């Protein structure tokens, strides 16, 4: 589904991604961990087409097509979704209206009829229930004045409505209380199907108790320096990153 | 007339002089004295003031020289073939039960007008008619509020106005149906000028909603120079909405002068969508304590267009509140001007005045000149003002795009949200929906910047 080959990117003259390789197949859940500033959000941003980042090498194929050649909206329509680490507030743009526009733009690109108000409302009601999101929140402007936890929940709610093939969750667990974490994780798990995939960026094993990954990768200094099964996350929880970092530094001293 | 000049005007040949002489001669026998005097005074002030040049304090950013050099023919006699309701369709507000007065090139059309509301003492009619049959109601107010002595275009209007609306809401009456004043220019000839005049008198404890629409039947160059005087009696409430949508070649000058008695509440909406030059002078004067006023405006200007709002709120009495919100969208080579004056007179304690002007400047060539002017002579007051000039939020644009919304649509959504901040304050729902739809049409027509 997703194939990242030797991807390099820089921002404001600074190399951030220094050769990322990653393959994600349908039905898989990948976790990406790594210290602050290692490039996790940058990788996510590059995948969804944020223009501040300059691609300096490598390629990304999504379902065999050159993902990097597409505009941000085209990637979304192709089925790539990012739940942002820091969702922006958009004053004046109503949440429900926004989501309906988004869904119908995606449907249009696939040759589907737009959902009418009634059908859309029914869809919203269904997804709202299992993310325990209140109607009053969705009648407000997008993320405006939302609490940290509400913003994260709203990201996953959007994911539920838009039903992407590849969902990237960037620290969706941070800022959530324990109960909310459970609700959101269950929401994410419900969306899991054999024909879609998830990349979960997190610092904490806690989330991975609920969203169980097939693979865990450690991103450090712009590269994936270690990959393993779900046990790797447990090991990281116990031992931190130092042992991996020192191993990397020995192998390739800067 | 010219001999009465105290200062020479800056233009040697003024076409208005001969036009005025003609009007005056024609009217002489059939016009009551007080009207002749009013006109004469108006014209005298106009000649004293002259048309404002670029060195005029209030016109520094709004150059009217293209206007000053064009021929000017006040439409004194109405000659256009009658219009039908079908002609008015674009400017009728769906779902709005209202009284409607229609003016074609500044002249009242009884045939297209419709007065539904009936109540003891209520008067809704053309000003020309009111001046002859309701002199006692009109004379004490007409020309007493708008400032012909300092505003040249008000003076010009006073000299030349033919008609407009007269509304008298008697004490205690809350008029349910709004009054819609529809001013249609047929663009009769190049250089035509139309000078509508409205007088709106809302007595103690009464309520009124009034809408003024200024539109053109077809695109073309013409001048509308309109004046509206509004008096809100003690504890009265008046919501006034001016919607200006004449074409891109039109010149539009408007003065709205509001006089507020104690504990009155007034609202002024100004939605200004087009014109080569559109200037709005909106002023409110608190003549009694405890009044409130809301000024709310949205303006758009694109290539070779200029939209100007000059507001004055005169806190002459204590315990009054005023709120101003103006949003502007400037694109292409469009220019916007906002000047907001707030006076707080000595003794006007407990004044609360808030002014906000926000501007979206969508191209490198678009310009906004915004200036707050607070003059405060009382110490126990709360006055704030703020102006912003910015572009569309690129983070918000990206967020929308990342959810599948194309860049063009994303831009439309953000512009619309910005405009809606203003539109949402319009209290009447059918009117709000109508304005919202018209604004969206305009926004959709804004050319996108290249490379987006
Ligand atoms: N727009 C930008 N301008 C300048 N520097 C940037 C920009 N975006 C990212 N960086 C830098 O790139 C590096 C990687 O940032 P990134 O956000 O990808 O880290 P991260 O792994 O997601 O960290 P965290 O765990 O703290 O979220 C950091 O040093 C960051 O400061
Ligand atoms: Mg991050």
How would the blueprint of this fold be written?
The complex is a heterodimer of chains A (254) and B (452).
Chain A: E1 2-11, E2 14-24, E3 29-33, H1 40-48, E4 54-62, E5 65-66, H2 72-78, E6 80-83, E7 90-94, H3 95-109, H4 117-131, H5 135-138, E8 141-142, H6 148-162, E9 166-170, H7 178-190, E10 197-201, H8 205-210, E11 215-220, E12 223-228, H9 230-239, H10 242-251
Parallel strand pairs in A: 3-10, 3-11, 6-9, 9-10
Antiparallel strand pairs in A: 1-2, 1-4, 4-5, 7-8, 11-12
Chain B: H1 15-27, H2 33-49, H3 65-68, E1 73-74, H4 85-88, E2 99-104, E3 107-114, E4 123-126, H5 127-133, H6 135-138, H7 152-160, E5 165-169, E6 179-185, E7 192-194, E8 197-202, E9 207-216, E10 223-232, E11 237-244, E12 251-260, E13 265-272, E14 277-286, E15 292-301, E16 306-315, E17 321-330, E18 335-344, E19 352-361, E20 367-376, E21 382-390, H8 394-401, H9 407-423, H10 429-444
Parallel strand pairs in B: 1-7, 2-6, 5-8, 6-9, 7-10, 8-10, 9-11, 10-12, 11-13, 12-14, 13-15, 14-16, 15-17, 16-18, 17-19, 18-20, 19-21
Antiparallel strand pairs in B: 2-3, 4-5
The structure holds adenosine-5'-triphosphate (ATP) and magnesium ion.
Summarize the structure.
The complex is a heterodimer of chains A (254) and B (452). Chain A has helices at 40-48, 72-78, 95-109, 117-131, 135-138, 148-162, 178-190, 205-210, 230-239, 242-251, and strands at residues 2-11, 14-24, 29-33, 54-62, 65-66, 80-83, 90-94, 141-142, 166-170, 197-201, 215-220, 223-228.
């Amino acid at each position: 589904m997703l194939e990242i080959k030797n991807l390099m990117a820089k921002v404001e003259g600074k190399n951030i991604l220094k050769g990322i390789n990653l393959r994600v197949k349908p039905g898989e859940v990948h976790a990406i961990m790594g210290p602050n500033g290692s490039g996790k959000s940058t990788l996510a941003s590059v995948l969804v087409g944020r223009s501040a980042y300059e691609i300096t090498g490598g390629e990304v194929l999504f379902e065999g097509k050159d993902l990097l050649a597409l505009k941000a909206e085209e990637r979304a329509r192709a089925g790539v979704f990012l739940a942002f680490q820091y969702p922006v507030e958009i004053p004046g743009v109503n949440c429900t209206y926004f989501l309906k526009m988004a869904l119908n733009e995606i449907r249009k690109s696939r040759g589907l009829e737009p959902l009418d108000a009634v059908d859309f409302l029914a869809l919203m009601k269904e997804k709202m229930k299992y993310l325990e999101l209140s109607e009053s929140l969705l009648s407000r402007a997008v993320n405006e004045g939302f609490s940290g936890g509400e913003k994260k929940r709203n990201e996953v709610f959007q994911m539920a409505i838009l039903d992407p093939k590849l969902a990237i969750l960037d620290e969706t667990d941070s800022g959530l209380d324990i109960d909310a974490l459970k609700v959101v994780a269950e929401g994410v798990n419900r969306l899991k199907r054999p024909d879609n995939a998830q990349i979960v960026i997190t610092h904490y094993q806690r989330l991975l108790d609920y969203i169980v990954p097939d693979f865990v990768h450690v991103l450090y200094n712009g590269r994936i320096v270690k990959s393993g099964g779900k046990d790797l996350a447990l090991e990281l929880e116990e031992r931190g990153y130092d042992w991996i970092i020192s191993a990397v530094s020995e192998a390739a001293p800067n | 007339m010219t001999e009465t000049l105290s200062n020479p005007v800056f233009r040697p040949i003024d076409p208005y002089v001969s036009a005025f002489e003609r009007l005056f001669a024609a009217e002489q026998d059939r016009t009551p004295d007080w009207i002749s005097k009013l006109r004469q005074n108006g014209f005298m002030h106009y000649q004293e003031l002259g048309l404002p040049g670029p060195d005029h304090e209030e016109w520094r950013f709004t150059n009217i020289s293209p206007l000053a050099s064009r021929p000017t023919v006040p439409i004194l006699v109405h000659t256009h073939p009658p219009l039908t309701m079908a002609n008015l369709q674009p400017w009728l507000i769906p779902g709005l039960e209202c009284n409607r007065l229609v003016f074609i090139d500044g002249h009242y059309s009884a045939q297209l007008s419709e007065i539904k509301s009936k109540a003891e003492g209520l008067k809704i009619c053309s000003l020309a008619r009111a001046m002859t049959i309701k002199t006692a109601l009109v004379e004490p107010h007409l020309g007493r509020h708008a400032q012909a002595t300092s505003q040249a275009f008000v003076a010009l209007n006073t000299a030349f106005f033919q008609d407009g609306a007269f509304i008298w809401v008697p004490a205690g009456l809350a008029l349910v149906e709004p009054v819609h004043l529809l001013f249609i220019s047929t663009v009769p000839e190049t250089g035509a000028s139309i000078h509508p005049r409205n007088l709106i008198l809302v007595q103690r404890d009464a309520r009124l909603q009034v809408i003024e629409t200024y539109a053109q039947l077809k695109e073309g160059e013409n001048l509308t120079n309109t004046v509206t005087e509004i008096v809100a009696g003690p504890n009265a409430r008046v919501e006034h909405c001016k919607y200006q949508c004449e074409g891109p070649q039109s010149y539009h000058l408007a003065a709205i002068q509001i006089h507020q008695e104690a504990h009155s509440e007034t609202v002024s909406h100004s939605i200004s969508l087009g014109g080569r030059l559109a200037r709005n002078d909106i002023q409110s004067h608190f003549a009694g304590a405890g009044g409130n006023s809301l000024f709310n405006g949205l303006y758009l200007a694109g290539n070779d267009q200029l939209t100007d709002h000059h507001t004055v709120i005169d806190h002459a009495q204590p315990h009054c509140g005023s709120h101003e919100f103006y949003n502007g969208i400037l694109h292409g080579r469009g220019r916007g001007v906002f000047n907001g004056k707030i006076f707080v007179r000595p003794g006007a304690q407990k004044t609360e005045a808030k002014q906000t002007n926000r501007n979206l400047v969508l191209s490198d060539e678009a310009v906004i000149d915004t200036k707050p002017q607070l003059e405060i002579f009382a110490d126990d007051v709360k006055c704030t003002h703020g102006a912003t000039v910015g572009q569309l939020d690129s983070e918000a644009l990206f967020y929308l795009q990342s959810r599948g919304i194309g860049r063009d649509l994303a831009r439309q959504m953000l512009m619309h949200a910005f405009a809606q901040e203003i539109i949402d304050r319009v209290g009447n729902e059918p009117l709000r929906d109508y304005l919202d739809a018209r604004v969206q049409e305009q926004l959709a027509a804004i050319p996108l910047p290249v490379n987006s």
